[in-house]
Design brief:
Rossmann fold; four-stranded parallel beta sheet; six-stranded parallel beta sheet; homodimer; alpha/beta; disordered N terminus
Chain lengths: ~280, ~280
């Protein structure tokens, strides 16, 4: 099926969509950044809303789900896959790259590069789901690239539900954020990595809670830039005269997910289709 | 040996386990109540932790998951099925009863009966997941049984994550509970139904937040009593000389779920096995 769908010319291949997947609609923060940077790209997005969240589940289960997500994208003939989910990037990326020949990018490398773009970065805090923190993928990637870093990972499992419920402005959210941030602030972090695609929506609140001078690294923007460099290197950029489209698939449809999709994308997501994963 | 008089085949059927399923480990509050009331019963419990929560997902998806859960229990030869999940009871129970011949009980009827056991109950508040509230299953069951009731349903989607994170004692939980309870208290409820298997753990906090005299109805205990009546009626009670066992299956295993299972069950859950659902 995938090979039959691939057009013969290079222009044809470059016109095929970029495939994104996430446990839900949080990965649309990455899509939005990609659309801003590369408006010619066609995008096919899969959100596994029927089985979300991934962040609290075991590595084996996350790897199995990620595998099914990638297979769905490949049957739709994507030219590259972006794992727009920190938990899946943290647990599944190496294995996905072993199993599939299509270029597969995660959100971790981009975020780590951006965090270390500041040569003065020394004390780095990471907030993420429990799955991402426990994987030590960020901690490992940071430590590999610069010696002497002081790294503090903080699991923040209540932030995804709070964002999904749109309690962003609520005092309870501030209170919960304070509990998560306190140990990081106590350790004098100079950089805070938002290692979950839901967290960019919390940036305004985070800024009021962190001491001045703490740099926020948001993986959505950095991932888009990283993707652009990779597509350029692989000669896979879409033709510049093309107007990119967005096709959105979710494994469970509901009004709440549609509202959230609009919020993450900051515009209408258009028609949303239900995806049935092949298992 | 009181059950020695039973024919061998009946005794065999009665000794087979009761099957319970829930989206996660919250349904173990029901299991605990059943073990206290009917210690001879063998219990087989399935928690669909790989796909939890159900409460935020669409009716179609919940029905599909519930169907797969029941099939898993039936392949293990259970004598009856308890839908120990309010969301699944609310959306899937009628269809499950149509499809399968084994006795299938939900948590709603029992809770509604208990709420109305007080003849003075007039203003009934319900807190539950968004899925349960939106199904109107509780509201409908109450209204069918007594005319003139004033019923207020309040979706409380953040309570499950807060309980699962064990933030039960935290001020943020109190603050969030206040937001959910305020509209119910304003309407002068005399009864509050805890229509989610996670909520019994919140009873101590709830008691400090509600005006005196509001009666709490917790579906775990009532469901156990309802089940005992049904098993008696169907002549399906386990032989009294038997010591009941618990077999626990989860679709995703993790340390967090094991800890939670212990918390809900108030004792060690024993060995937990991983369930693979047939789809």
């Amino acid at each position: 099926m995938p090979s039959a769908a691939l057009p013969a010319t290079v222009r044809g291949v470059n016109s095929t969509p970029l495939g994104f997947f996430d446990s839900g609609v949080g990965g649309l923060t990455v899509v939005r950044a990609v659309q801003e940077l590369m408006p010619a790209e066609n995008i096919l997005y899969l959100g596994d809303t029927a089985r979300l969240p991934y962040g609290s589940k075991s590595p084996e289960t996350i790897r199995q789900f990620a595998d099914e997500d990638v297979r769905f994208l490949l049957t739709h003939g994507v030219k590259a896959v972006v794992v727009a989910c920190n938990t899946a990037s943290a647990h599944a990326l190496p294995r996905l790259r072993e199993h599939y020949r299509v270029p597969i990018l995660g959100v971790i490398e981009a975020g780590v590069e951006d965090a270390l773009a500041d040569p003065k970065a020394e004390r780095i805090g990471i907030i993420a789901t429990r799955g991402t923190i426990n994987s030590h993928a960020y901690q490992h990637a940071l430590a590999q690239r610069r010696t002497g870093l002081i790294i503090h990972g903080q699991a923040a499992p209540l932030l995804v539900p709070l964002v999904e419920e749109n309690w962003i402005e609520h005092p309870a959210t501030r209170q919960i954020l304070q509990v998560y941030l306190e140990p990081l602030v106590d350790k004098g972090i100079d950089t805070l990595m938002l290692a979950c695609t839901h967290y960019p929506l919390l940036i305004p609140v985070l800024k009021t809670l962190l001491p001045p001078g703490v740099r926020l690294v948001d993986s959505a923007t950095t991932c888009a830039q990283h993707l652009q460099r990779e597509l350029t290197r692989l000669d896979l950029l879409a033709p510049a005269d093309q107007t990119g489209t967005l096709e959105l698939y979710l494994t469970d449809l509901s009004e709440q997910f549609e509202q959230l999709a609009r919020q993450f994308l900051k515009k209408s997501p258009g028609r949303i289709r239900r995806a049935v994963l092949g298992g």
